[in-house]
Amino acid sequence: RKFVGLTRRQDHLLRVCLYLLLNVAEESRSEIKMVNRGLVPMLVECLEREQTDLLLLAVCFLKKLSIYYENQAEMARLPTIDRLTPLLSREPLTSAVLRLLLNLSFDRAHRAAMSAAGLIPKLVQHLVKEGRPTADETPVLCILYHLSLDDRCKSQFPYTDCMPWLVRCLLSSQNPQPAPLALAISLASHRRNAQLFSGAIDKLLERALRDADALFLRLVRTVAQHCGSARGALLSSRAEALCSALMQHSSGVESDFAVECASTLAQLEGGPFGPLLDRLLPWIRSCLSEGPDELLVPLVQLVATVARSEETCAKAVVQQGLVVDLTGLLRARQEDDQLVLQVAYVFDALVSGGGPSVQQSLVQGAQEVPAYLLDLLHDRNPEVGRVCGHALVVLAHHYQEWDRRLREARFCWHNAQWLAVVQSGEMPEEHEEGPCEQFLDRSDLLSNGSATSDP
Questions:
Q1: CA 322 to CA 279: how far, in whole Å?
Q2: Residues 55, 147: one domain?
Q3: Mean pLDDT in the chain?
Q4: Whose CB has fewer CB within 10 Å in the chain, the N or C terminal residue?
Q5: pLDDT one-digit tens code per residue, 275-292
Q6: Domain span at 257
Q7: What start-end ranges are recorded for coiled-coil regions in this protein (predicted)?
């Protein structure tokens, strides 16, 4: 009983001291002096106390100090997260603990400590317990978003109720906040999490098209990257709606939504593009010359998907004159590595899946596609070189001229150093006397040491 009374008096004294120090720390120089004298370890030690008022002051003081990187680094060396985890369930401290965890979650070391301490299930449980359908921006959502940036943390979310809660929250809210959408998009980049989202992809896509919401559509696109069934659902019923939305919202104000529409359509390999080509391809051609810059790469990706879907689609791409536009785009933006790569994908799709008629039009026409492929064969981006090499190999099987030129280009590349020496004329002639020739003619260099040693 005496020990309990002593502890109670210590807690009261510590609470008064911390309250005084917290007020003094409003002056920055005083705060620096306190930190230099070991304030952070003292505050972390106070987290093991039982008095609620003392714990609240310690957490608030740590939150104030955590805005500086040096203090965060010192907290990472101490068992800060392990001591904060039990306090999360104590109702008077929950809000302050969450805000401190939010500050610490910007640091990778603290995120790893949170994951190791099992904070993800507890945070999700706290989120589900609130049961708020609007899901406004709370510290819990922000902490979970920061944790979802690490791949090792993403693998823990499938064992929680986070994905079902996010789906209910997003679909039930008329104007969802960016925080739950950002968390859902980040989690959907993991295959297992995407499978848990795939059951609601039709409703999410319907909501995205109804509200022209770029973030909703990005969530659908991210889920479709991992789920074949979800991609099949998109192919069966929504390709035409996505094309209409793309052409309707391509202005500068709504270009973000148009980018997501084009990127989503670009994932529909083998999609039903045939009935849409008469409207889609002329519109794409006009956008390549007059549309916003951020729409160029997704549209070129879409052209590659269309060309790869069917042979008739590849023929339509060539007949509409898109190859000429793409080569002009390649000349104008040759420093844009991503755009160059996507144009290379289009050329490879035309050569590989277009059939003999498309190949002949590319080789014998004035579009110069094989020449561009040859120039990009040894691009600094290895993926560009790989794609161009594959397209040239296909052409080499059908055209002897391009087979010869491909072999010649590869020979020149692999022997570039030797060819440079030969062309520069720096190789010494046989009759030319080098700087050491006079020493090699001396008689004392003979094996017997005498010029008359021969019989």
A1: 14
A2: no
A3: 83
A4: C
A5: 888 889 999 988 888 877
A6: 201-272
A7: none
